[in-house]
């Protein structure tokens, strides 16, 4: 083997292992180091390469035991049509789901872990000692809830809502007022109140012309945190009667009030006011009133949605 | 985990239904009847039993629960999961519930020991289901978070068994 041939041969040798991926037209080239043309392997590889790119929907008929059945061209076509139809259907569903429900945005709110949930629940019941309420940013996007306890998430509100509906059913059951329709009624009425609240706050934010980065999903997350306190109140009411219910509900109302004020202050009010310096001005006062109103509405809703469950 | 297998779950659901019918029947009457007559009678009795939650609601709620867990797992995991996989894992982990309803034949579950047993079985079912999910979907630090909705779902089944 003379050096020129070997030098010319090395680039082709590197192409050697990828022979299966080259198209049909280039299969005439054989490895120059071989003493004879290896037509058998080239042909089978060529055959494989030919069928590979074009036959994605086709099964490997020569290898499978159902060769006789699948070698039949009609059933081949039927399988190809069926699988392409299924793929199209799946694509259609995915595209439409993505249009109505922003799945990638929602995934951010579910990137939680057990430690975050524990810390957040502690914060919801006792927010008085927490100092830093600012969400950390990482190159212009907020950090995932997993890494910052101040970031809003949707796992806790969603689980709290479902647990509230089930606990409400349990409470009604102990009063012998349970029927499965009532469960659905509780769920839809709570959902309706939540939607109403979100729309009212969005409307008032629009009227006050606040430039915030508070998205709708963020707002839903914040408004969903009150269900945790409601569950606590109902469970205490079931165990210890009205006294327990009022005590725990009162505590949770105070905590949610402080939590909402401290969280929304950073989102709605201007940066100067958020740092603690009271800025006098009509706009800031209006924003302050809006924050107080939103925070004060939470205990009201908490009482309204639970008092009929505890007798 | 790519192969969804619903044979086991269906078998367990049938077993659960059978033991539940056995429970309801043994608490209602003790006459000696032929087996097909007993089956039909207990099926009709459970349908007519006043104040009891109908099976249709339970099936509907468990289907909604499965869809809910499918949505939650798709949102929480980095790789998606198919509905068949979720249904098959949840169905397989329903097996301890069959033990619970089987034990209901021998003693009533409405006392303290029944409640404790039901809670233990719910925790067992949901921990095993969440363990399978997090190992299949490669989610770290989220086992309790996945176990909680599974516990809610199995709690519904336990309510059906106990009451």
Automatic annotation (TrEMBL), chain A:
Entry GO CC: COPII-coated ER to Golgi transport vesicle; endoplasmic reticulum membrane; endoplasmic reticulum-Golgi intermediate compartment; Golgi membrane
GO terms of biological process kind: endoplasmic reticulum to Golgi vesicle-mediated transport; protein transport
Taxonomic superkingdom: Eukaryota
Annotated Basic residues bias: 12-23
Membrane topology term: Multi-pass membrane protein
Transmembrane segments: 154-173, 185-207, 219-239, 245-265, 286-305
Record's compositionally biased regions (Polar residues): 37-47
Cellular localization per UniProt: Endoplasmic reticulum membrane; Golgi apparatus membrane
Function text: Has a role in transport between endoplasmic reticulum and Golgi.
Family annotation (PANTHER family): PROTEIN YIF1B, YIP1 INTERACTING FACTOR HOMOLOG YIF1 PROTEIN
Family: Belongs to the YIF1 family.
Protein's name according to its UniProt entry: Protein YIF1
Source organism phylogeny: Eukaryota, Metazoa, Chordata, Craniata, Vertebrata
Automatic annotation (TrEMBL), chain B:
Pfam family, one: Yip1
Gene Ontology CC terms: Golgi membrane; trans-Golgi network
Domain of life where this protein originates: Eukaryota
GO BP annotations, alphabetical order: endoplasmic reticulum to Golgi vesicle-mediated transport; vesicle fusion with Golgi apparatus
Membrane association type: Multi-pass membrane protein
Keyword DNA-binding (UniProt): no
Subcellular location: Golgi apparatus membrane; Membrane
Family: Belongs to the YIP1 family.
Name this polypeptide is given: Protein YIPF
Organism in which the protein naturally occurs: Myotis davidii
Phylogenetic lineage: Eukaryota, Metazoa, Chordata, Craniata, Vertebrata
């Amino acid at each position: 083997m003379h050096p020129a041939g070997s030098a010319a041969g090395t680039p082709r040798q590197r192409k050697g292992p990828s022979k299966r991926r080259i198209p049909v037209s280039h299969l005439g080239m054989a490895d120059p180091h071989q003493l004879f043309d290896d037509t058998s392997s080239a042909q089978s590889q060529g055959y494989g390469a030919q069928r590979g790119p074009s036959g994605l929907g086709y099964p490997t008929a020569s290898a499978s035991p159902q060769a006789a059945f699948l070698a039949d061209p009609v059933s081949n076509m039927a399988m190809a049509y069926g699988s392409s139809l299924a793929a199209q259907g799946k694509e259609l569903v995915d595209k439409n789901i993505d249009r109505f429900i922003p799945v990638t945005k929602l995934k951010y709110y579910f990137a939680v872990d057990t430690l975050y949930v524990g810390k957040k629940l502690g914060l919801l019941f006792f927010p008085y000692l927490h100092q830093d309420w600012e969400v950390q940013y990482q190159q212009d996007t907020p950090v995932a809830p997993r890494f910052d306890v101040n970031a809003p998430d949707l796992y806790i509100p969603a689980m709290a809502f479902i647990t509230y509906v089930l606990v409400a059913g349990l409470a009604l059951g102990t009063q012998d007022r349970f029927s499965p329709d009532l469960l659905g009624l509780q769920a839809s009425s709570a959902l309706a109140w939540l939607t109403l609240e979100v729309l009212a706050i969005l409307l008032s934010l629009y009227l006050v012309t606040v430039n915030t980065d508070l998205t709708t999903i963020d707002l839903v997350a914040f408004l969903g945190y009150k269900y945790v306190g409601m569950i606590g109140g109902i469970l205490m009411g079931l165990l210890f009667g009205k006294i327990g219910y009022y005590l725990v509900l009162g505590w949770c109302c105070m905590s949610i009030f402080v939590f909402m004020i401290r969280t929304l202050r950073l989102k709605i009010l201007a940066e100067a006011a958020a740092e603690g310096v009271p800025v006098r001005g009509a706009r800031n006062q209006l924003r302050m009133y809006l924050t107080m109103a939103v925070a004060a509405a939470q205990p009201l809703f908490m009482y309204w949605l639970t008092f009929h469950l505890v007798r | 985990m790519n192969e969804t297998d619903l044979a086991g779950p269906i078998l367990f659901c049938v077993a659960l239904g059978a033991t539940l019918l056995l429970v309801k029947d043994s608490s209602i009457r003790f006459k000696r009847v032929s087996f097909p007559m007993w089956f039909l009678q207990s099926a009709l009795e459970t349908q007519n039993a006043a104040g009891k939650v109908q099976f249709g609601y339970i099936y509907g709620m468990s289907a909604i629960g499965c869809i809910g867990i499918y949505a939650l797992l798709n949102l929480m995991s980095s790789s998606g999961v198919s509905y068949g996989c979720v249904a098959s894992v949840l169905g397989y982990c329903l097996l301890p519930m069959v033990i619970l309803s089987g034990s209901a034949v021998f003693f009533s579950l409405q006392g303290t020991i029944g409640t404790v047993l039901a809670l233990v079985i719910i925790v067992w079912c949901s921990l095993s289901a969440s363990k399978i999910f997090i190992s299949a979907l490669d989610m770290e630090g989220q086992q309790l978070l996945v176990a909680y909705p599974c516990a809610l779902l199995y709690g519904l089944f336990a309510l059906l068994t106990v009451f």
